[in-house]
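testing teh design pipeline on a random one, pls ignore if ur not involved
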């Protein structure tokens, strides 16, 4: 029942998921809060596995991505299979591991880590171009890091999306804290009549609605 409710909420509130679910192609749903990966065909779950996600300082990128390459035995530490994602600010993917005890933990450099036997079951279901939707809070409540110029990551995406919703940011939520993001932060801080730093700290996260 809880899974059914989760899928309904995703289709209602997460961008592009209804379009993904409306066809019968396979897509992947990664839930950071529950630390699971589910392969679905349309809105029908096929298989689900536990995963490890990014650590405090290397959060897993939430958003709508797609698989851009597949590889067997991609390299040391990446296990027996690798599915690369089109995240614009770094090399992220879904892969196996030589540390199976880490599954279920915040343990990776941002990738989705699976047991080798699990990704070997998932691998044949996934093609190049398969959509991947990553949802949830990639951070523990204590791990919001300060954001400033030239940083990259999933936390930058969240701030960009929130500033866009408030009308301050006009660019793409690309996860890169560049000039346009810094300017949006400054303009937002100016309207709040607080110190204009162009940076995001704890009080700014709170003011943006993050806890």
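output:
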């Amino acid at each position: 029942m809880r899974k059914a409710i989760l899928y309904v909420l995703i289709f209602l509130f997460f961008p592009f998921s209804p379009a993904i679910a409306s066809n019968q192609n396979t897509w992947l749903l990664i839930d950071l809060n529950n630390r699971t990966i589910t392969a679905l065909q349309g809105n029908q779950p096929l298989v689900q596995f536990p995963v490890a996600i990014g650590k405090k300082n290397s959060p897993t990128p939430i958003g709508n991505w797609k698989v851009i390459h597949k590889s067997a035995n991609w390299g040391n530490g990446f296990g027996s299979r690798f599915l690369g994602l089109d995240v614009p600010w770094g090399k992220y993917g879904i892969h196996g591991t030589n540390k199976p005890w880490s599954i279920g933990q915040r343990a990776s450099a941002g990738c989705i880590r699976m047991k080798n036997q699990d990704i070997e079951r998932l691998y044949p279901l996934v093609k190049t171009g398969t959509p991947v939707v990553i949802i949830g809070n990639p951070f523990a409540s204590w791990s919001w890091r300060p954001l400033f110029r030239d940083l990259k990551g999933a936390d930058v995406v969240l701030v960009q999306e929130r500033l866009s919703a408030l009308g301050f940011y006009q660019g793409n939520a690309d996860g890169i804290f560049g000039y346009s993001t810094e300017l949006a932060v400054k303009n937002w801080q100016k309207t709040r009549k607080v110190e204009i730093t162009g940076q995001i700290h704890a009080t700014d996260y709170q003011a943006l609605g993050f806890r």
